[in-house]
Amino acid sequence: MASPGSLPFMKSIAEAQAICERERDPFYLDAFLFEAWLGSHILTLVSEYAEKKCARDRKMQTGQAWRDFLELFGHVRDTDFHHVLGHLFRFAEYDDVQAETLRRAVIPLSFEHECFSDYIGPKTMEIVNRPAEAVKLARRSVERWCDWIDSVVHFQTHASWHLQPAKFDPDPQKRELAALGINQRNFAKLNEFGKNWWQWHHGEAAERFKDSPKWTALGKAMSVENEKIWNYPNLDLALITCWPLLKKFNWTYRDLMEVAKLILPQHRGYPLQNESELATYCLNVLGLRKAGPKGRSALDGKPRGWEVALKLCSPPAESS
């Protein structure tokens, strides 16, 4: 299906409601809220990295996307929830940064459906004839979708922290200006929505910071910046991506280690030498801590869900 293109630029709920009335389509109000929800979630994770220099102090993949979703949509009645779900899928089709996050997060959800029939998809179509079960499945699917959003945004933030360090100043205002500067540097690559957003935000920020020395943060971010050393990008991607599986199936660190070795068979040594070493790495580098009851390691090194992990993280051609 072809992309519907860019969303109309909406600066407020009032503008979103006006478009809904003009188009006779309630979708645009939900789209505005989806933009706000996902944008706020990204800013929250950036602040975790920027304001907590020690990774072990960060709170990563703790269900924040779902909690934020409930803040906006927790009031929706069961009889109306299918409209929200339909609008989520429709929103994901647009040429939009936040829509891209949804698209990336729905891929592992679809893999889990293929492997376990746990969530909404072709294998659960018959449930539409049982409304009470259908709405439970829909809500459970969106909650799981949010787990994968947590994972996708976590890796985006982790990668950006290494590749665009200017965006992680401890001062949130300087972070805002740095993001504007980086977007200005890449303005030609932005879609129509992104360009409209940047022009509006830049004009608003220019007025707000016209007498502030912080305005220089924008210009600094426009220049080429040095990247931080990133020792294990492929391994970090695998561990962050697999974390929702660890949470769902209560993997041990040994399970995670064995799955990581399946994903990256050429990776040798630290931090995959033993489970204690890996647990320390997850906490001190990625901000990930395993919660809940102690699990039991799979005897064959293939815990439940390992097939999903391999589908998501096919081994790259080169070593990490």
Write the layout of secondary structure elements.
Blueprint lengths: L12 H11 L3 H25 L12 H10 L7 H11 L5 H20 L14 H33 L8 H14 L6 H17 L7 H7 L10 H17 L3 H11 L11 H12 L19 H7 L8
Helix pairs in contact: 1-2, 2-3, 2-4, 2-6, 3-6, 5-6, 5-13, 6-10, 7-8, 7-9, 10-11, 10-13, 11-12
Give a structural overview.
With 320 residues, the protein is mostly helical. It folds into 3 domains: 13-164, no CATH class; 166-222; 233-312, no CATH class. The protein contains 13 helices and no strands. Helix 1 runs antiparallel to helix 2 and helix 5 (97-116) packs antiparallel against helix 13. The protein starts with 12 loop residues before the first helix and ends in an 8-residue tail after the last helix. Mean pLDDT is 91; it is low at 316-320.
